[in-house]
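Record pair follows.
FIRST:
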Amino acid sequence: MHSKWVKRFDTTTARGPRLVCFPHAGGAASSFLPLARELAPDVDVVAVQYPGRQERFDEPPVEDIGRLADHIAAALRPLTDGPYAVFGHSMGGLLAYETVRRLERWRLPEPSRLFVSGQVPPRERRGDYGTAADDAEIVAELRALGGTAAVVLDDPDLMALVLPAVRADYRALRGYTWTPGPPLRCRISALVGDSDPVATADAAAGWSAYSVAGAEVTAFRGGHFYLEERLTEVAALIDATLGVHTG
């Protein structure tokens, strides 16, 4: 795998199906390292690395969901040669959905499952999250949602490094408009935190209209970044869904 768009973690040699993970707004591929360790060695976890962060820090961020999905879908072509699934959290859920749309449109093998975490269907998206326009509003929203360590939010030097990517992702979210098209062929699993102010279980149930195979919703205890505290439970759900038996 030789693509700057996809990162594989140095975990135990993986076997079984591949899981392609999409980070949240402002997030990087490394946010999925704990999940990769939890699922190793029975699931081959790889994560998408957006421009403008970590080893791609010097590259300009892409401020358009559609263009991001185009680039990522092209980079994932070689990874569709065996059983695989896709997992996206928050903005990553929306981007994962758009990427799978492109893979199916290009008649590539579809994933066995699309896991959409902390994200409602495109037509259910609310205008009060992910639309902050200035730095003060963005920082306030990051504090409200959690998932960004207070030590980062309270350090001007660290925030100066993080904010350019976050700004770009927020612009991408503000500019996103869903384009009608065929529903996906793969089944969707929607995962939410039961106290998430952004993606409620009721709203996430609407994902069933976006796949001919339908969808189901699973709620975990926690907020928007429930995954950090419910890692073992989420990994168990992924294992069961993909037919993997760890241990």
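SECOND:
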Amino acid sequence: MQSRYVTIHAHPEGTPERELFALESAELPALAEGEVRVRNTWLSVDPYMRGRMSGVATYIEPFTLGAPLEGAAIGEIIESRAEAFPTGTKVRHMGGWRDVAQLPAERVERLPAFDVPEQAYLGVLGMPGMTAWAGLNRIAEMKEGDNVLVSGAAGAVGSLAVQLAKAKGGTVVGIAGTQDKLDWLEAHGVKAVSYKGKDTAQLTAALNEACPEGFDVYYENVGGTCLEAALNTLRVGARIAVCGMISRYNAEAPSAGPGNLAMILIRRARMEGFIVFDHWAHYPEFLEEVGPQVAAGRLDYEETVVEGLEQTPGAFLQLFEGGNRGKMLVRL
């Protein structure tokens, strides 16, 4: 059987060009004992993948040039030599960016049994949802009545973070760019602030207007001006959960750090970065809390769906242009 896959043959500098990505194919070997073959139905593209394209190991190994790129995917087992995963089983795994994946059975997991569309396990009930939950609860230790600020607030992670924060009863403010994203936030009871065309002073003023009392929690997805403005609006004892800094992912040279980092001292704040995989042992706890809310329609989530394996690189690049609302997905 042939597997078609997306790969790269060079490390990008700055924002990757579409031409960097190649669609190739390879003959799959016969299944070994303990392996499964999965026909993928949904692929995830995520900002963290940009770091894996740089050829440098960080908290995760870089992609191998010429090999299939990797990412979360959902599919159906079409051939199996693993008793626990018979043909027809729906699974989640990390063999994305391809149409057919062949993996050891220990690298796939059955989909949970909530009454939700299967692709939800790549978004609101997958890594992005777990990231939002872990950042707020395990890193920022969000409490009832906390005022919460979220940057990238209409993305896959931010859109769940603002809703989880709203349930705690405090003022929630979301930073976003496009008008449709701002409208989505306002429709969900979140005070929306645009970062477009604003320097640090202007964004600080807009945040102060939205929440004059200041913020107990800042959920950081963006960095840059958003981080500087957020530091200016912290309350004493604030906690900052650093999930990502997408504004820097395609930078070709080191960028200056926040010029007002002293606000962490002045506000006696705590700022902590985290990687969701370090907290994955708590995924069942997340599912128990959030899964029923999603199944019952009490938590809203957005998806931006692109069709076809060939469009996967374009879907990935849209993440850096604000081209997604909620989770960016590729349907095969």
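COMMENT: The chain has two domains: 2-123+302-331, 129-277.
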